[in-house]
Write the structure tokens for this entry.
Amino acid sequence: MSTKFTPASSKPDKLLTGFISVRAPELKHIYNAIQGPTSVSELTKKFGKPTSGGVETDHVEETVRFMNAVDLVESPSGDIRDTVERINERHLVGLPFEARLLYHCNQQGGRQTHFAAVYRALLNEGTRTVNGDRDNLRTILKRETDYDFSWTDEKIDMWVTLSEQLGLIIESEDDITLSPCRALIHDALALAPMSSDEKPNYDDAITKNGEFRRALDWINDNLFSVYEERSGTPRVHPAIADVLRNMEDDGVISLSSPGDSQNAVKIPPEDLNEDVRGNRRDVTRISIHSHPDETAYQYPLTQHLTQQ
Amino acid sequence: MSQDAQQLSAASEMPCYWDDNPVDHFITSEAHTATKTPEQFKETHVDIDRIWADTLTPLGVSGDFVTQEDVLESITASNLDDPNRIFIVRGEPGSGKSQLCEWTKYQINGFGEDDDGIEDYVALHVSRSQTQMEQIIDVLTDPLDVDVDVKNIQGSDPRDLAEPIAGLLRGYWSTSLLTDEELRELTEERDDGTDLRDIFAKNIQDYQEALESRDDNPDFKLLTDDDYRDLHLKLSFGDKLREEKELIFPALKNQAHEYLSNNLVGNFKEQLQEYSELYQEKGIRPVLICEDLTTFSVLKEQLLDHIFELSSSHYDIVLGWTIGWEQENIDDAMAHSDAATYMKGRSEGYLTMSDENGAAYFLDDDVSVELTRSYLNAIKRHSTSEPAPDDVEDAFDGLYPFNERFVHVAYRQLNDEGSDSKTPRLLLLRVVKHCLKSSWPPYEAMKSNANVNTPTFGIDMKYDQIYLDLSRWYGVPVEGGVGVKVGIFETFGIDLPDSDVAPVKGDYVVFDKGKGSAVLGKIKNPPTPKHETGEDEDDQDGDEETGGDDQDDGETDLDEEDDDVTVIDEPELSEEEREFERKYQEFQDWIKNGEEYPSSDTLHDGAVEVLERWHDPTRLGNPNASTRSASAIYYARGDNLPVSIQGDQQRQASIDIELEWGVEHADLYTPMLEYGLFGLFDTNDTNFDRLRAWADTNVAQFKREMRQEVEDCLPEGLTIKKTLVLAQFFLVNAAQGKEVEGDEIPAELVFEEYDTNQSYGKPIVENFDRSSAFSQAFNNLSKRSSDINDLIEGFFLLKSNVVDYDRLAEARREVAADFETHVDDAMMIDAGDLPDAYKIGSTRKQAKTKVSTLFGYISDYAAELQRLTAEEDASHIQSALKPVERWYDSSHTVHDLAEWFETLYKCAGVMDLTIKPTYEEAFETLTDSPEDVKLTSFGKDVKRFQSMDDATGVTLVARLHDFARSRHEQRAWKIYEALDSLISALQGQEHSTGADLEHRIKQLSEYAEYEQKRQEINNITEDL
């Protein structure tokens, strides 16, 4: 098994957002249940809801196919309805499922890049929140992306729900807040390479004086967009900046800008009315500490598990 | 920030550059005081240049603002022989009516010395404090050379005054309202207290006493409402008096007043006319100024009656009164229907000094400062104290101990005991005088001033209290923050804050604005929903500087000394904006000091919104379930989430989310407060991650507490999840007789729909009396079967068709592993103390079934279940077993049974025994469909039922099902019953024992028993 990211040997070419009923909780649970080669019937037996007519299997099978499509699993026998096993397990060892799934979604090529493109398109709006009305989102996506399929409500719903459950965004009745959860930001920073001789790895979550720009660039290209403006001195999006600011207030990260360092990233002030040159903070270095064992630093799927 | 500053300020007294006397002299509750000289009046007068004129006919104005000069010009636009011209001036108390009247008087009569006023005019000013009869006549005749003999009410014997009034009424009053007889009765002498003479005398005496004891002019009425009521109760035409009170009462009273004044001063109307003629002869136009009719106690009616008879004389008349007075009193004062409209219609000017909120029109920010300045200057000039050094006055904009900002703020925050009246008088009395007479500096003195609402402060809450207080009164918006002049600190002996937190720039100490100022900004310019990005302002970044020179740390470092700080002007606030400011100020005081927080609903609303924005905070179910249609346990109490504000909205529920006060929470709470004010979050400066972290933490904590509270009614061995699995198992056990087999409860059983209908019937329903305790417990539980089922789905599904395997497997395993203990635990569930708020449903609103009810049912059922015994509750099984046990043997075959039946049939024929249908049925089964008789499994059933003596609980229930099923499925039951019945019937007969029968019977293993029984029967028969 390779430590490099390897696409599944064969996989469905169905659009990721076309898996309209797939949700993060079952992805996480079913993925965890796959230890070694596992028969799909065992999975359906465990996870399918028993009914008078037998066990519901469709949805479990669909979930497995999605995992196959994002290179989390493949079938050793070549038949995805028969047996599956995890792949890329040795890549980014220890990374929590949520960050891993986002990473996998972002490694996809061709038109599957649409999955990562949605968040980037929303960040391009330049605001902390966007109106969650599907027509509005469709307008943004049509404007900001160029794919040969249509952004149906179902696809948008799928992306929003999955991304919310992974902690990338959070939706309220009428808008979508674009700030990722702190757990995701922390894992992203822990994972990102912080120097030229480093590869992404999750082993050591604590970093001292890493190169901030290098880390953000990597996150931007491999996990989720972070910039509002990338050309010149890149500027962090306000929704991301809020989280960094709060984590810094909590002592979970420290951002600095020693005199001689290069490659700064700009962080806008909290009050965007004052977001003008001169009010933006330059950051070149980041230190990451372990995060507190608090609800605010947990992924959404873990937060409210009051017993376990 | 230094501690010393606070101590210093607490100890410091205000340097005082004035005496108390001039303060009292100048700032009085009346514009007109006898002691204030014309010069002093002039000194302190501020032009009243914003007066609303409904009409001001001489200038052709209607519905516009006019100035004091306009008013003067209009009044003095008359000709000598013009009829009466009337100008009405209305306004709140203290809104400047008297000041305007006083000023008009001085303009007309001149300030003395070189100023002779307006030629050919004379002002006759009846001030508020000079409305006694004698005083009025004095004023009227002062410029004339006449000698009027005026008797005053004061000093006269009440009886002497009262007698003639009643006499005149009796003898001279001609009125169409009363008949002669009625008038006679009304005015006759009585000794029951309703004699008009007694009434008048009593009222006169009251008035005299009131005059002695009070400064103000007391109200004077010869006849009060109460007196009138006494009259109508006493007199024979009382009904008429009551019914026509509106007409008769004022007429009677006014007539009495007229007779009184006639008596005292002669005929007042005639006098007014006479004086008018005298003025005309002198070529002088008199301007009669009655600054406040409200205070006229006598002569009011006669005066009004006369002057509104416009052609009766030649005066220019200014009538002042308090807004609203006319509504209640003019009809009473003038014998004219709808007198207010009548008067308005006949006046040359109808002027109003204050707006509907009681704020004086003319007093805006600038005028309030000018007014304060003029009074301060006069006071200081007339004080013997040393004047304030120039640098002090400079620091305070020449208004020491105030500054311009202070006056603006104080005027806006005026609150006359709850009303919003903002008048010059209140500003002078409540603010200027209050502070000048205090030994504390104004920012301290104002703390004890109930008439002025505490203003907000715009600086960051992190600063010491002294700086918050100072800035809220003296701080002006400047570039980069809020500025307070350095001289103000120095004068009051307050240490400057550390320069790294509040640098000195130019004359000012500049404080950081903090979040608060943003809120204040929004109050003036509320945020609007903004999703569509209209105005992208990334233009700032287009030519971003390249590389190394970008070392600016974001803060603008200004040189401390010579930077000029621009003070930014601020517009006036609307009522709503003031209301918002008040709410914000209350929030500031609460968060800073934990003080009372009357408008805490504002913050509460915002907090609730944050909690509900991304969460369903009161829902307890499977947090990973993405379906919301499944059921859950809700905390559903009242309409709102249980959120409390520390110190104000205290905890009402056993669990809740509390907002604690403390400046460290300011950044977090401010957006909540803004939401409470504006109904939305300002996406420009709301750090949503901060709100979310708070919501996440508190919602998770709340749910933990919910779970804790619910699980507190469960014994240690049970959790909500296990209790649900157990309850579901009870249902399936009762409905289908399922038992725990193996080491886990099967998943399909957990999701099994509850259905009691089995092919073999409903043993649980059929075997128990409906009124039995078990039956009732079962009924209760089964009625809640859908709640249990829904909760199972809500707790154990990830979505409608996907099971949360790990979560469920754990519960299935644990319950099965030690099943009986769990049932015993269920008996111990005690939900008596669980609040009713815990309910079951798919949404908070729809949640109806109380969790305590469900738990109670589960517990009752468990108890009844464990009480079941085979002896009591399975006796039907025992009786069914008896005939079988008598004859059954595992070696029997269907063939054996058929043969025996045949033989017995023959015997029966010999004995002439009646063959029952059950025998035939059994025989038919044995011969026609032997394959239906499964003796092997029947044998197992029999064994199982024979060994169930100790069975109880779910096992017993399972046996009941097994038995019903066995009875339904096994034909052997009937066959052995028939066999038993047939044999005993035969034994009861005298029978010949044919060889063949004997032979066959002997083959029966029970033969011996049969023989024995037969012998017994025979013996018994023989004995008979």
